[in-house]
Amino acid sequence: MTTAGGDSRPFFMQTTLTLLHIAGHHVWRVDFSPQTLQPDDLLWLPHHAMLANAVVRRQAEHLAGRQAAVAALRAAGAKPYVPGIGAHREPCWPAGFTGSITHTGQQAWATVIATPGSIGIDVETLMDAPTADELASGIIDARERARLERAPLPFACALTLAFSAKESLFKALFPRVRDRFGFDCAHVVALSENRLTLRLACALGPFPPGHCFTLHWQQDAQQILTLLRVA
């Protein structure tokens, strides 16, 4: 793999890169083994000094996420480029492109599109029932809970889905909003087999209260993936 500076070096960390097709988009997944990470692997990152004090697992997932992002950028037509880290910890994409990165367990995903437009992707491991009950009030309000409890999914699964959808919304809108916003800024108003709709409760960038976004979602064993493309 080639860095932004043209430096090519193999990883000691064991990784496997896989191309997936999700909701009409190319998504690159990297399966990685954190225990195989070596300090020199981080030198592949132009911003490696920013990770010097991170725990090994965080270093490994960051490296895997950037590996997926470089593959996604290349497939979208960009020159070799490793996204840096912005002021809000967001990936810094090259001019003309934007994307999204997510991690869970020992996997990282990335997808990239040409601008204009933006995209958000998130993958979450399913919560168990006690965790869902404990965290629900911080993710959804009473109306959303009633809606999710009526869905043909176990509540813990539906809540994981809502959490992931709001994370994907945040990632997709951040390039327009340029600031953080909470889960209470968007409410789940519809849920079907592969779609979930969020309605804004407040203005976010150019999008007014009441604006709706429909995301694609899918479940694979114990993981839920959500993806949102915004024009």
Give structural notes.
By secondary structure, this protein is α+β, with helices and mostly antiparallel strands. The protein has two domains: 15-115, Ribosomal Protein L22, Chain A (Alpha-Beta Complex), CATH 3.90.470; 122-230, Alpha-Beta Complex (Ribosomal Protein L22, Chain A). The protein is 26% helix and 32% strand. Strands 7-11-10-9-8 form a five-stranded antiparallel beta sheet. A four-stranded antiparallel beta sheet has the order 1-2-6-5. A two-stranded antiparallel sheet has the order 3-4. Strand 3 (84-85) and strand 4 (91-92) form a beta hairpin. The longest helix is centred in the last third of the chain and has 23 residues, at 155-177.
**With helices defined by DSSP (H or I, 4 residues minimum), what is the helix count?**
4
Q: Give the count of structural domains.
A: 2
Low-confidence blocks of residues: 1-7
Proportion in β-strands: 25-35%
Question: How far apart, in Å, are the first and last alpha carbons?
Answer: 31 Å
CATH hierarchy class name of the largest domain: Alpha Beta
Helix content: 25-40%
Overall geometry: globular
Rounded to the nearest angstrom, the radius of gyration is: 18 Å
